[in-house]
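Narrative of activities, Objective 1.

The group set out to show that a structural description can be obtained from nothing but a protein's sequence at a throughput compatible with the screening campaign. Below is one input-output pair from the validation batch, recorded exactly as produced.
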Amino acid sequence: MTEEEVNRLALDIYRGSIFTDRHLPPSVRKDILHLVFMPLIFTTPETITTWEAENGPLGMIYERMEQAGPTGINGYPIFMSSNLVNKVDTDKVWVKFEKIRAAAEGVMNEGVLPFKKDPAQVTTPS
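Output recorded for this entry:
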């Protein structure tokens, strides 16, 4: 993945427009992963081995929320398509995600101070 793709994926995960296998609790992940990401039902171990030979170890499965079907399972969306990301790129995405989350929390924890002037009168340096 390019740096731009990593950034976009991390931001979209933060915004909630991407659902990943990591959104499933580890206690149920193995049992319902193939029900959330339906293409996995038809995936053989050989398919994954071939994909990993070309791309490196599998790190994450994801899909855009807009691709979710009209029903869900146990409160989780169901997708008829999915995307795979290798472990190296997955690690980059989650590092970037944590930076985005920390930055957002940092801003929210600062609090919002009232303007001392009318905001329309505040000038910014050019």
